[in-house]
Amino acid sequence: MPLGNVVEVHDLVKFFGDVRAVDGVSFSVRRGEIYGLLGPNGAGKTTTIRMTIGIVTPDRGEAYIMGYNVHKEPVKARSFIGVVPEISNPYVDLTVWENLMLVGEIYCVPKRIRVKRAKNLLKMLKIYEARNRKAKVLSKGMRRRLLLAMALMGDPDILFLDEPTSGLDVISARMIRSHLLELKEQGKTIILTTHNIDEAGMLCDRVAIMNRGKVIARGTPEEFKIRFGEYARILLCFDREIDAKLIRKHFDSYEVIVQGRRLAIICRSKDLRDVLEQIVQVTNEYSLSIEELRASGLNFEDIFVRLVEGLG
């Protein structure tokens, strides 16, 4: 394993019946970084993670954690990791505190350390006041924070998170992201799957973008923006709603997104003059007034869509 890499995945392949769910996926994760596996639903992200941590056996390929082969030396490999699956629940009839004590025992954490660590985690995740509540009465956001605390009870070097903010309200999702950045500052390595592109842009040092079981692109969010630097996004807001079909006819050479009064046009920078002239023509033809007009580079979501749709 190259120096600095704590996770290595080589050519993972997995079939479910005749479906090749994962098709030759490889990536490596450096110590202390947040690494994202991105992709639409059904891209193969979760199956890849499950093979990487040894829950699912690959039909081909290998995965290593801290130099240990996950499927040949599973006990050693798994001793370094904590996992928060997308679909999981704490023990619902136990209290928050009892859940952490139980997990601490499973990880063979001495009682004195177990108690101190549980207090610190619950305070960090802002659920200490709920420590005596049964897990079944917690909100979804609090349950996700409890699951994160449970995954951290063994003080793992590496944390695997599958869609960590899926289904959460905005405040809960922001809180989880904030805690992940705190864990990174503490030296933890985090691998997460997500189809939330904004989230990946905020959190991840590097990402691998998956589609139909394959990695189709990899790099830092900044590298992707540089790669697509020749493109521009024009945002407009009109004084009234616009007819999407009519607008698309005028801009049929470009990517167009219409939402009520708002219009987004993605084009190459060299075409900006032509697009702006066309905008003037449209506003005159339909007696529209422009309330807002902005031009910028592509955001990470634009880039993701282009890659997944084979436009990049």
Show unreliable segments: none
Please give the alpha-carbon distance between the first and last residues. Answer: 31 Å
| Outline | globular
Number of helices: 11
Strand content: 25-35%
What is the assembly state of the chains in this entry?
single chain
What do the pLDDT scores average to?
92
Largest sheet: 6 strands, mixed
- What's the Cα radius of gyration? 23 Å
SSE series? EEEHEEHEHHHEHEHEEHEHEEHEH
Percent helix, as a range, is 25-40%
User: What's the count of strands?
Assistant: 14
Given helix and strand content, the structural type is: alpha/beta
Q: Numbering strands along the chain, what is their spatial order in the largest sheet?
A: 6-7-8-3-9-10
Write the layout of secondary structure elements.
Layout: E1 5-16, E2 19-30, E3 34-38, H1 45-52, E4 60-65, E5 68-69, H2 74-78, E6 81-84, H3 96-106, H4 111-124, H5 140-152, E7 158-162, H6 170-185, E8 189-194, H7 197-203, E9 206-211, E10 214-219, H8 221-227, E11 231-238, H9 244-250, E12 255-259, E13 262-268, H10 272-285, E14 290-296, H11 300-308
Parallel strand pairs: 3-8, 3-9, 6-7, 7-8
Antiparallel strand pairs: 1-2, 1-4, 4-5, 9-10, 11-13, 11-14, 12-13
Helix pairs in contact: 3-4, 3-5
